[in-house]
Amino acid sequence: MTTVSAPRIEHHREPLGIGESRPRLSWTLSDAPADWKQQSYAVTVVHADDDETVEVASSEQVLVPWPGRALESRERVAVRVSVQGADGGWSDPSPETWLETGLLHPEDWSARPVGLELDENPESDARRATLVRRGFRVDGEIARARLYATAHGLYDAEINGIRVGSDTLSPGWTVYRERLRYYTYDVTDLLRNGENALGAWLGDGWYRGRLGWRGGRRNIFGGDLSFLGQLEITYTDGTRQTLSTDDAWKGAPSPILRSGIYDGEDHDARQEVPAWSTAAFDDGVWMPVTVRDRDPRTLVAPTGPPVRVTEDVAPLAVLTSPRGARILDFGQNLVGRVRIRVTGPRGSTVTLRTSEVLQEGEIYTRPLRSARSTDHYTLAGRPDGEEWEPRFTFHGFRYVEIDGWPGDLDADAAAGALTARVLHTDLERTGWFACSDPLVEQLHRNVVWGMRGNFLDIPTDCPQRDERVGWTGDIQVFGPTASTLFDVSGILSGWLRDVEADQLPDGTVPWFVPVVPTHKVWDPIRPGAAWGDVATLLPWTLHQRFGDVGVLAAQFESARRWVDKIESVAGPDRLWNEGFQLGDWLDPAAPPQDPGAGRTDRYLVATAYFARSARAVADMARVLDRSAEADRYAALAAEVAAAFRAAYVKPDGTMTSDAQTAYALAIAFDLLPDPAQRAKAGDRLAELVHADGNRIATGFVGTPLVCDALTLTGHVDTAYDLLLEKDCPSWLYQVVHGATTIWERWDALLPDGTVNPGSMTSFNHYALGAVADWLHRSVAGLAPADPGYRRIRFAPRPGGGLTHASATQLTPYGEASISWRIEQDELKVDLVVPVGATAELDLPGQDTEKLGHGAHTRSVPLSG
User: Fold this and answer.
1) Residues near 137 by Cβ (< 8 Å), separated by ≥ 6?
2) Which pick of 284, 387, 612, 723 has the fewest CB atoms within 10 Å?
3) 825-852 CB burial, b ≥16 within 10 A, e <16
4) d(CA 755, CA 797)
5) Tens digit of pLDDT for each residue in 90-117?
6) Helix (H) or strand (E) holding 677
7) What does the DSSP assignment read for 284-348?
8) Tens digit of pLDDT for each residue in 594-636?
């Protein structure tokens, strides 16, 4: 009998405090007989006072509309699903999923931001973190209790001395003036009858801490540290008690003397306030708080999971540098912070200084630019030892120099006294890849680790230096890979709302979101190809990978306004051939201090993207049944493509920029409808790859496309040559030189082991790792053929001497997988199609075959 999974609520992993009153539902099916198809489904919503069941004649099972009445604020319901096949039989009901809405309306909020007014230098990076608290009484039997919390700055909440929640660096980074995220916590078990206390730590974070490079700016979003909390206690008799942040709260300086995203944290344990968040604490000497303002209409529930500690990593080695410094090597470039357990004299200080690389045996911090990236912990001198980790910062590092350790560092490290705690948005892993080449497998691991470190509340460019911002071009090119490796549907659909919030009135999309003030190159904001196109191409990617029409509806106006802006800039000739452009950023042939001066004409890049985005808006409009707009933008896309060919494609089929990125764009963006011209472009691209010794000759724009362009034009072997090259620049050059993440520059580490002298040498930048999506789709051969993998394309293209490869994908319909191996002269393939999906199998030299759900095995002779 067909089995139905517990339904998923929108894109939430944990549907507590959601912001949707009519959330969409998804489920997966298993154990269905061959050829079984869902014909109808029934959703039962269990309310507090009744059950509501709605039957729908539909085969859909991904993001289906909410079937019943809209939910109210704070409403908690259970949902279960049954499905019916063509034979008329119904499945057993699925397990129930409990969901609960947050505060859906501005009038639900009574809390206001509260914090201290301290005499401090507003331009200092050493402003003190603070504490705020309030005592309260509970009288009666509690049915449930919820804390709704956010902050100007970052917060950690405590009730009765116990940390609330497992999230960190909350509420994260949004366009605060428009959207301040709040989180909902079930705190029922933390309360007790009688006296209780609620408190919060407050730190600068992105809200008022230093952001940006070349010194950066402070107080970009505000100058206050404030906690906004609303504790609602519902008693079993139905009455509700609300404790909101107001002028009755009190505050005090915390033992965190300074804390910054870039600079690290200084904590003096001698100044800790024991039991400050317990009911027994006397706050008589604490200061009254100041009540600030926040428009409750700007408070939004999260669309994705929060940042959490997801893994602990022990040091691989304890090193001694040539100058005698002690250095921990964690064996992996990661993002997070170090937890220490230490015993020592009162007043002694342990210093932890991080770096991604060593040079001449010492930690090398020049790539961090002005980021101090250092933590200090001053001991209280407790005889039974102390445990600490930074609270409001994070670092990108593999190595940590330890100074002032009071014990035997080697023995203590071996005993687990120093641990790297890995931080990132707690995304669900959805894509896995393996193959017979260990270097390619390491490359894939590097992409995964790079993505983990750079999906820290927003999709960032790098996690270590004085930058760490949401560059739009990076996630535009990496979006397909991100959507393969992890479920990014929630985090990215939320971030796209911030893209629209920061989009200029004329439609210009910023270089990075949220926007922070920077120096003259980036300010004022100007439209730039590949970066601004995130407004069109990322929503389309999310639709394709997750089957989400809602993200298209939500972002259509933003996408349309971007294309309208470029249309106005390009003018009647449809060529975007003037203005500031980054081009094929970080083409390895570009001068170190002019990374946009690559081999491909930057205006060729811009016009190609203009055509691609116009086509994306037309496609979005078609899905949304906006036929007039679909026709308009399709016509515009055709005009731009024609102008592109007239300006940049020569009569013999070569291009005015005889460079790999130019051909990759023309092929991958389908700008060459003439088969002969397209074939010529593919041939020339392959020639250029071989002429460059199979080394990379592309930057941020060309690198995600070049292997696909070669594959699409029948040059799979050349794509493998490019993939497997080990000389610089290449993907595997980084691997053989010890990389554990993807670098910003192909040669961030030079062949002699020294760091590239340029100012941009991040060792954790995911953009150039976008090749991983090609590994899944072409090497292993698993790709979506219809949105959300409703139809799956299995099309492995063995080559490069690989003897086996495999990919597994948790699609919205369930787990799909493919595994192929070469045995003697045969290609043997095993694959699984989830129930609710269909597939097409395209094996080399064979006719395409249609498949239904279930496990399938094929064996075909290898050609040639």
Assistant:
1) 194, 195, 196
2) 284
3) eebebebbbbbbbbbebbbbeeeeeebe
4) 36
5) 999 999 999 999 999 999 999 999 999 9
6) helix 675-691
7) TTSEEPEE----GGGEE--SS--EEEEEEE--SEEEE-TTS-EEEEEEEEEEEEEEEEE---TT-
8) 888 899 999 999 999 999 999 999 999 999 999 999 999 999 9
Rounded Cα–Cα distance for residues 535 and 555 (Å): 7
Eight-class DSSP state of 380: -
**Which residues, in sequence order, are bridge partners of residue 162?**
159
Q: Catalytic one among 467, 567, 639, 725? A: 467
Omega before 834 within 30 of 0, i.e. cis: no
The closest of 341, 367, 343 to 354, measured between CA atoms, is: 367
Q: State the amino acid at position 676 in one-letter form.
A: A
The CA distances from residue 152 to 117, 169, 200, 226, 256, in Å, are 14, 12, 12, 5, 17
Cα distances from 44 to residues 23, 221, 349, 753, 789, in angstroms, run 14, 44, 59, 62, 26
Tokens linked to 542 = 């999310």
The number of beta carbons lying within 10 Å of the beta carbon of residue 700 is 29
* Residue matched to tokens 């990075």: 512
Question: Can you give the pTM of this predicted structure?
Answer: 0.97
pLDDT the model gives residue 158: 98
Q: Say if CB 362 and CB 396 are below 8 A apart.
A: no
Distances (CA, A) of 427 to 458, 464, 480, 484: 12, 21, 15, 12
Q: Is 409 helix (H, G, I), strand (E, B) or coil?
A: helix
Distance CA 778, CA 668 (A): 14
Q: Is the Cβ–Cβ distance between 797 and 711 less than 8 Å?
A: yes
Burial class (CB in 10 A: 0-12, 13-18, 19+), 264: buried
Strands (E), 404-443: 418-425, 431-435
467 is catalytic: yes
> 117 catalytic, yes or no?
no
**C-alpha Rg value of the chain to the nearest Å:** 28
Q: For 704-744, how does the pLDDT look when each residue is reduced to its tens digit (9 = 90+)? A: 999 999 999 999 999 999 999 999 999 999 999 999 999 99
What does residue 478 show for φ and ψ, rounded to 5 degrees?
A: -95, -10
DSSP track, 773-825: HHIIIIII-EEESSGGGSEEEE-----TT--EEEEEEEETTEEEEEEEEEETT
**Which residue, among 657, 727, 648, has the nearest Cα to 685 in the 3D structure?**
657
Spatial neighbors of 830 by CB under 8 A, at least 6 apart, are 817, 818, 819, 820, 855, 856, 857
For the chain, what is the total number of helices (H) and then of strands (E)? 15, 46
pLDDT of 864 reads 52
Q: Please, which residues bridge with residue 352 across strands?
A: 375, 402
Taking the C-alpha atoms of residue 100 and residue 300, their distance in angstroms, rounded to an integer, is 15
- Name the DSSP class of 6: P
Provide φ and ψ at 355, rounded to 5°: -155, 160
